[in-house]
Design goal:
Elements: H1 7-21, H2 23-34, H3 36-49, H4 54-57, H5 60-63, H6 65-68, H7 74-89, H8 94-109, E1 113-120, E2 126-134, H9 145-164, H10 177-184, H11 186-206, H12 211-226, H13 229-244, H14 249-273, H15 299-305, H16 311-325, H17 330-335, H18 342-364, H19 383-388, H20 393-401, H21 403-430
Antiparallel strand pairs: 1-2
Helix pairs in contact: 2-7, 2-14, 7-8, 7-9, 8-9, 8-11, 9-11, 13-14, 13-18, 15-16, 15-21, 18-21
């Protein structure tokens, strides 16, 4: 157990604990997760549109409407959901906070624009027929995720500041609560409007950039640094290390990686719609952390445990088999256990590293197809990769090919741990009183 006293691992544990308790990161994670139904609905209609049937091919534009109104408007929902979760954490009026964030987000990234419509006559002169007022959709989808996060957090903090310092309109107690809540939100919403709308005007006047454009330009280098093979490798290892100490590393890392994964899927969806091949993004390798039975790729360990001589390991493995097939590893992580177990912690970190490198190689040689459908829900092994790639068969089969590798890495550590448990179980049995005949 001296391994647990290592300064490096202690530093990682403390960092993970702080991140898991950080209110804003928790709100972002919960808000993103609560918006998952939009991704799933969009994915369903993307899948329908790739079915090679004439009636579908002839109506693809119509069938893509649900996708455009879910994935294409994903950041609107995220702006609402994150603000709702953060306000709820502060015990504030969550619904009004969500609405405020959503309106400010739309005001910031998609102000109403009037466009003239018309025809070019025979002389090559444009003749106006009418006009159309609409919203730009450039930042309503995955491109606007980071702006949605900023708007959600800032608007809630502005509301919290106003409430804490009584900078609100208060109505008499006799007024219905719904009306009182609406009036309470007026001044905070006004301040948020001044902040973001004013910042937009200043940026456009000084550097000829809107606020969302400036944010994406500022984030370009940091995102480029994170969205690399080495960085994603370290991210996966970090998440596995946190899990070893009982901290849900996947959820902690999720808010940072998920926007890049969604942006990759949407970018590839646009390429596929143009008849081009989808491109590989390093963020796609984040899934290697849990593709073979959940975080730590523990299905190999579970398979070994089904024939274990230890009653404890065998019992846990039977319970963990089906959840592991669906990439849920809590039963084995806490039941085996792996958490705070120096023997099993080593392969738990090592296996994702090996799987990561193998997956990278499979993408490099073209065996795996990059995804363009965002299928983020928990599914049986290989199904999300299969659906995400437009039903590419190797993507479905690949995780199953990695089970023997997972078993091979876990095997020597499993045998050491099994021997310890078998010895303890035999000692316990030997101490049980013999029943008198």
């Amino acid at each position: 157990m001296d391994y647990l006293n290592n300064k490096f691992f202690n530093a990682l544990i403390k960092l993970g604990e702080k991140m898991s308790k950080q209110r804003h990161l928790a709100a972002i994670s919960k808000g993103m997760m609560s918006s998952m139904p939009l991704l799933l609905i969009g994915a369903i209609f993307q899948i329908i549109c790739i079915i090679p049937i004439d009636i579908i091919k002839n109506n693809t534009e119509t069938l893509m409407i649900p996708y455009n109104m879910t994935m294409g408007a994903f950041s609107i929902a995220v702006a609402f959901a994150i603000a709702y979760q953060l306000a709820n954490g502060y015990k504030m009026r969550a619904m009004m906070s969500g609405v405020t964030s959503m309106i400010i987000f739309l005001m910031t990234v998609a102000p109403a624009t009037t466009v003239e419509t018309g025809l070019v006559n025979a002389e090559g002169v444009f003749e106006q027929v009418g006009s159309f007022t609409g919203l730009s959709n450039s930042y309503l989808g995955a491109q606007g995720l980071f702006v949605a996060m900023i708007v959600a957090v800032v608007t809630v903090e502005v509301s919290r500041f106003c409430q804490t310092h009584n900078v609100v309109i208060k109505l008499p107690d006799a007024v219905p609560p719904a009306m009182g809540e609406s009036f309470t939100a007026i001044i905070p919403m006004l301040f948020s409007t001044i902040i973001f709308f004013g910042l937009n005007l200043i940026l456009q006047a000084t550097v000829n950039m809107s606020f969302p454009t400036a944010i994406m330009a500022a984030l370009a280098k940091p995102l480029g640094a994170v969205n690399t093979i080495p960085a994603m490798f370290l991210v996966c290892i970090f998440a596995a290390v946190l899990w070893c100490f009982g901290i849900h590393g996947t959820i902690i890392i999720y808010p940072f990686v998920m926007p890049m994964m969604i942006m990759a899927a949407q970018s590839n969806a646009e390429l596929v719609a143009q008849g081009l091949a989808p491109e590989f993004w390093p963020s796609m390798l984040f899934g290697t952390l849990q593709m073979v039975g959940g975080t730590g790729n523990t299905l190999g360990l579970v398979m070994l445990g089904l024939r274990s001589k230890s009653e404890q390991i065998k019992a846990v493995s039977k319970v963990a088999l089906i959840p592991g097939w669906c990439c849920i590893n809590e039963p084995v992580a806490f039941g085996m256990p792996i958490v705070f177990n120096p023997i099993l912690m080593i392969p738990y970190i090592l296996t994702p590293a090996v799987v990561f490198l193998i997956n990278w190689g499979a993408y490099a040689i073209g065996f795996l197809k990059p995804g363009y459908i965002s299928a983020q829900a928990l599914m049986p092994m290989g199904f999300s990769q299969f659906i995400g790639s437009g039903m590419h068969i190797p993507n479905l089969l690949f995780p199953y090919l990695l089970i023997p590798i997972s078993m091979l890495i876990y095997y020597p550590f499993f045998k050491v741990y099994e021997a310890q448990l078998v010895k303890k179980e035999q000692e316990v049995k030997s101490m049980e009183p013999i029943e008198e005949k």
